[in-house]
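Record passed on underneath.
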Amino acid sequence: MYPITRFHKIFPQYCVVNQVFNKEEVEKIIDLEDLEKFQRGQVGSGQVGGSELNKTSRDSAIMWLPPNDSSDWLYRKMAGLIPQVNYDFFNQDIEAFSFFQYTVYRKDEFYNWHVDAEDGYSTLTRKMSAVVILSDPRSYDGGEFEIVVGGNVTNPEVMKPNAGDVIFFNSWFPHRVRPISDGVRKSLVTWISGKWH
């Protein structure tokens, strides 16, 4: 047998999909703020004993948006988008995505360099991450999203996408949200998982 590469295409494992959500849909997502309680964002796997409040790594308010009558449309829309993005940019074996984490960054709040992939045992592991931008980039200063996509940590991609855009990336890629100097930055985050092979 003579070895061949599995795929001819090189998958970038990263993309920004523009205008997934229109202005009215973004406002409808923001209205969901009233349905759940906010808490301080933690760092870690979320498993028992695996998360902690660490303001040197992360300072933001979060809440969880489970699927319900008010958010079902949002879950259905993402469930339709994720397989297409996976086909075009990732080619991962995926099965499900997590409940949305709604995150709010205010003045001086941030999230330092981290990866989303989990290090504990689980039947499913995070393979892709998605960030839905809910704030107009002109409404806040700072808060840039930075990600290392080519392995060069000294030269990350830096961006402030528009409200309604969705950033997808490999969950192993280091990324961060720079401190907010003025205004408020809102986003939704979810993680797309599949089995290890």
